[in-house]
Amino acid sequence: MRTFLFFLLLIFLNACNSGTGRQEIDLTDQTSANPVDGIGHYVYALSLPQSIKAGNTLEIQMDWRTVGPADIRKRYDMEVRLNGPASKVFRVDQSLNTVGEANLINWINYFFPLPSDFPTGTYQVEVRLLDETREGGVVPLGFRPEMAVGDGFYQVATVLVE
Predict the structure, then answer these.
(1) In this structure, are strands 57-67 and 105-113 parallel, antiparallel, or unpaired?
(2) Which residues of 85-94 are buried (b: 16+ CB within 10 A; e: fewer)?
(3) How many domains does the chain divide into?
(4) How far is CA 80 from the centre of its chain?
(5) Predicted local confidence at residue 81, as pLDDT
(6) Structural domain of 21
(7) What is the mean pLDDT of each run of 10 residues along the chain (162 residues)?
(8) CA atoms within 13 A on the CB side of 61
(9) CB atoms < 10 A from the CB of 49, how many?
(10) Residue 42 is part of a domain; what is its CATH number?
(11) Fewest C-beta in 10 Å: which of 72, 130, 148, 160?
């Protein structure tokens, strides 16, 4: 039942767009007051297109925030996965983002080129953080548990590939 309600919320959030063909999604209500490791790494908000054609570049802006007693020198690799009729993982090296900084409040733009033969359909947009020094390699994010989709990924949006 919670999964069904979560997907209804995502559909509602996806329906709220700026009139520019982009989705403006606010995830502040989806964060946990008590993150698993005491540090909250979150995507508080994001902006991405409602749809994109295969062969084009998917541009996503994310408002990453880190709260709690985080190591101010720490950086994480990030992965964004499109999961639907096919699955594709895009990796963003820790040197190309600031995710993980203590008390981070930061909009970051990411660009993910889709192959021209990428299958059409509706895709979940999922994120996770990685840290090779951490056991298991996955950094827990501070979202509500029902956002978890496995392997350390959390669904934050959907996008239509045409």
Answers:
(1) antiparallel
(2) eeebebebeb
(3) 1
(4) 6
(5) 98
(6) 2-161
(7) 41 46 91 64 88 97 77 79 98 69 67 97 95 80 88 96 96
(8) 10
(9) 17
(10) 2.60.40
(11) 72
